[in-house]
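Researcher: Re-running this chain for the archive, since the previous output was lost when a drive failed. Same request as before.
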Amino acid sequence: MDPKLTALSDVLERVDGRLLDPENAAHVWPTGFPLLDEELGGGLREGTLNLLAGAQGEGKTTFALQVARSCAGSGRPVIFLSFELEAESLLQKIISSEAAEASTSSMPLSVRQVRAAFEGSDGVAGGLPERLGEHADGVAALTAVSDYASRLHIHRSTTTQTTLDVIAAAVKDVVALHGVPPLVVVDYLQKVRAPEHLTEEEQVTHVTERLKDLSIEFECPVIAISASDRAGLEPGTRMRARNMRGSTSLAYEADVVLILSNKADVVARHHLVYGANNGEHFKGWSVVTVEKNRSGRTGGEVEFRKHFECGRFVPEGQVVAEKLVDERVFTE
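Model: Regenerated structure tokens:
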């Protein structure tokens, strides 16, 4: 019998067994952002393709890395395919983020300070424990990361070598190592190597469809960061799902589409003109818009404070109270 053919009686039995066995819980990966999980119906689901898009410099990699760190910290394996940053740079962000999470100091360990320790330019002798020990929460952060470091795998990806087959092989390796499917993060989708005879839009379609297939095959969630087309970056335009490069296939195949926006760019003008500090404080917040969600409500908008000097967003966010618009507003 075709292994892809499933009788509903088998589905009922599988669900019943899962509910009766706490160790075999429903396969939902919390993101580490509680309000976002509420919007998504609990988190990221197995067999789903989740797209994360936004303007350049808005923190897409930071956001995805924070989700990866949270999943690994909860005991789940993760594979992070990085076309942008090497493993050491990502680890520096993670350590700083971990320190900031536990810190009560007004000056938590920054990414810059962690980088200096990694590069040996901090004027301190010894290894990482000695160098990070010079900072509050440095050793605690290193210890916390060490607890889940074996579950968070970084794949140094390149546009010339990293094909979909390479990605699938890497996921298989992680499954073989841990015995369970991982969260897969692709940073970012448009850099995955596709057949060269295809047009750019056809390449994006090909990659998107195969990443969706991969999520189904391995029963895992895939987060793919997506680049914007030129129109989505134009002044006066708020990025939407239609502005993702190859938007037709992206919007159709994706189960979840999240758009990350600078709040100051998308809040209605009257909030900027009449609000405190003339809207300056909005620049410290990013809005996550749930543009598509097959497992729950669409259109939710939640916001998180940026803490980029420590490589993170503050995970305790809030629902957007102000009116948002589709036109970016610039003030002197």
